[in-house]
Amino acid sequence: MKVDPGTYESLPDVTPLGSALDWKWLRGAKSEWGVHPKPSPRGLTMLDIAVGEYGEVPEHPTHRSMAPRGADIDPDTVDMGYILNRKTDVWADNVRELYEEAVARQWSATRDIPWGELQELPDDIEHAMCQLCTLLTEVEMIAADLPAKWMWRMNHDFIEAKMFLCTQIMDEARHAEVFRKRALSNGGGLLVSRSSPTSLLRTIMEAKTYTQASALLHLLGEGFILDIFRMGEMISPTDVEKRMFRMAMQDEARHVAYGTMHLRYAVQQDPDVAEEIHEALDHGEQVLMDFGASPDVATALAVLLGGGVEYIEEKGFPLAFEMNRKQFTSYLARCERAGVSRLERTTVPLDFLGIDPDDIRRAGGVSLGANASAS
Amino acid sequence: MSPYSLEVAHANAAAIDTVAFFAALADEMNANPDRFSVLGEAEMDAVLVMQSDDHDFCINLRFEGMRCDEVVEVLADVVHLADFCLEGSLSAWRAMFSDIVENGRATGMQTINALTLLGEEIKLVGSDPMGIDKFSRFNQTLQEFLDGAVVAFASTMKP
User: Fold this and answer.
1) Which CATH class is domain A87-364?
2) Could you state, in order of their start, the residue ranges of all structural domains in chain B?
3) Which of A130, A204, A320, B117 has its CA 20 to 30 A from that of B75?
4) pLDDT single digits (tens) A55-100
5) Complex-level ipTM
6) Which residues have a Cβ under 8 Å from the Cβ of B61 and sit 6 or more positions away?
7) Which residues in B lie closer than 8 A to residue A371 (C-beta atoms)?
8) Residues of A with CB below 8 A from B78's CB?
9) CATH 1.10.10.10: does it fit domain B3-157?
């Protein structure tokens, strides 16, 4: 809708108290006036409103303020001290979709878990579940603290990425809540916490760049936790735990999806970033292997996988080994997808785990756009 | 459940490797938005493959929003186009649905996550790790959909 510039000429220049007035916003500030994004069947999504200039995310924003992208921004806006000012620093092509998904699929650890169906469990199984929940309560909040550490440094033009990370922070708060509740709700409690998880968390927190942090957190750490959630669901003694792990699994997979595609975007735009990511993962994989082998994690999972302490050698440890193989296979396939192949560089003992690099290459080295319908 | 799905399910009470059975599951989902709205929208294409000596039955399920909008039998050579594919013997799928009918929902090692994580009887495969991860991103929706067999299948067993 084009407005005649003379339409608002007769408006007052000062307030009744004598302060100067500025009608720029009404008299034709630069904007795409008349834009009418169409709601999708789900409602008006962030993808729907990414139209025209509003949908264009600049590679190098010129502002360092919190002014909304697409507004008519004063050139002398305050510098907020952002240091992540390149789109490649934070962006992922799926970030708007993932934000909408996150908002749509929020759940409540209070309401959506059938706590009333908890059952008394054999002592060793309850101990093992409580130990697993102790560990998960400890590690989950890193995935809230880390985005929080970097978000205020991200240029505000990347608002969709920041919004997605806000959902991740909420997700992780809920995960810490649900695992704490499970540990405390069935006669057990919080059990042992030792230094190994904290070493991993510290490695993630101390990453030098956000992209390194994202590689360590989203791709490596959360990828592994996603598989632990999948394991947790499989070995859950009742539907209470099954639902708890399934709901958490859904959230975690979104975070992994963001990280994988962020790294892919960063490497596509600047191949030199790959070395930066590799450096982080060289160290991160080692710390993660130490974490996985730490006695509390390995034994609690093995007891649950085996179905009790009496089956730990016959069934628990062999199944835990098989699960480790699957964890590393998924991780390495995601690395391929992200464009940072680890197959020639990883110190993960692939032969020992029985992982064939050619299988990984086939599974992960696909191009974008493989999500077409089969029908 | 809609009268249509009851009718279809009645006619195919014992056959899970049919379009009609999965159409009944889709009807059950689409008739109960309240059960799925708490889980939120889902966007995924999944192919389920049921292998038997005779032939492989491949069914493509498209989930959009809070509905399963497409149930289409597809040829084995296009299953890789879906986000992910769940492959197993017909007997493994029967065991999974029997567990659902018996217990009111999948239990123990018969949830779709447990079956595919173990990967001995039903495998989770796909050509893209991002597509495969959608299995995890929408897992509760998929499980709830399969648990619909309690109504779409078990109720048809009544005399």
Assistant:
1) mainly alpha
2) 3-157
3) B117
4) 999 999 999 999 999 998 888 899 999 999 999 999 999 999 999 9
5) 0.90
6) B22, B26, B45, B46, B47, B48, B68, B70, B71, B145
7) 45, 83, 128, 130-131
8) 374
9) no
